[in-house]
Amino acid sequence: MQLDFHYYATYCSAFLAGYSHKESMEICYSAQLVDCMSKTFLKKIKASPIAATTQLSLEMVDSNKDILELQNITRIWSSFHFLPYDLYANIKAPKPYRDKYRLICNTNSDLLVKTVNLAKKNATLQSTGIAMHVLADTWAHRYFAGVPSLVINNTNSYFYEVTYKDGQEQTRKIKFNNNPFKTDDIENAIYTKSMFQTSENAIMNLGHGRAGHLPDYSFMRYKYMPAWNKYEVIFKDNPSDYYHAFCQMTYALKFLHGDRTSFEKDTYEFDQLKKYENKIKEILEKRQLDSCNDWKAFGESLSGQTIEPFDLGKYEEEYVAATKQAKDDTFLGKFIEAAIAQKSMVTNEIADSKNFLAGRSIDRKKRRAKRLSKLLKKNKKQGVQ
Predict the structure, then answer these.
(1) How much is the pTM?
(2) Residue 265 CB neighbours (<10 A)
(3) How many structural domains comprise the chain?
């Protein structure tokens, strides 16, 4: 998904779930920040790189593709963008490939429930926004995995857009190029995707790169043949998936707001959103690369307030200027803590399944407590109060 859904649509969902305008702005800002909190940005604000929730293309291209770096890539992309569906799936394949199959993203997983409950436990708007990003991406990124893998994420030349006219299905072949600087051409069905690489662990084989931005466009319906499905045809209906994502976000947000007693899988706020269904689906079905203006207008019609454009530098000065002791109480400080908690939870859930493609995460709270205990003992020994 893109800025239009993670920022503006998330604002709409949060406001409809009962949050105030200000709270909705902080939630949607945090949801979009997941796509921006790179190692490069963290270095700029002098924060820990372990809080990275995304990676810039140059960061991945310049990195060493050793086991540690592949684990780092998998930690980031599986934790925030391609949440694994079944870590214990019964797949008949050699363990290296079986482990990768078990990282394939899909909706309504046990890990999604744990993600939402973790946000409830952390009880910050930043953790709420992060959880909404993860939830939304399970719908857009289903059937892809957040690990570089030719065996899992590759596709072949079979790509067809599906449209409907007078109730009849129509298809046209999608044409791809490998030029990342070219704008996708909806009119002529020409899109950009990552270049084919024969190496199993090539970065080009990460996530939905081999399907280009097709998963990111809410209007898109298409048929394709993914490698993980033995090149059998899969049909993806993005308008339906995105509507489910919006309704599930609203349900999750009502739980996080305190208006629901639990978060259950495969549950949606269809009834509450019925009066807005036609408008939401109109936005989702509109054939455009960027739906920001439409979602923004819808959100402002709901709240009567102005939704500010996303500004990556908005909270930067507050964090940089804060003392070391006060940084955790800043907006970015709270986001960083929530991001590390989410990454640690997912990483350790993967590791607990005897799958070490993401490595294992150290419990920072236990590590801090251990350091504090050692410091206190040292001070006591030296007579320092």
Answers:
(1) 0.92
(2) 11
(3) 1
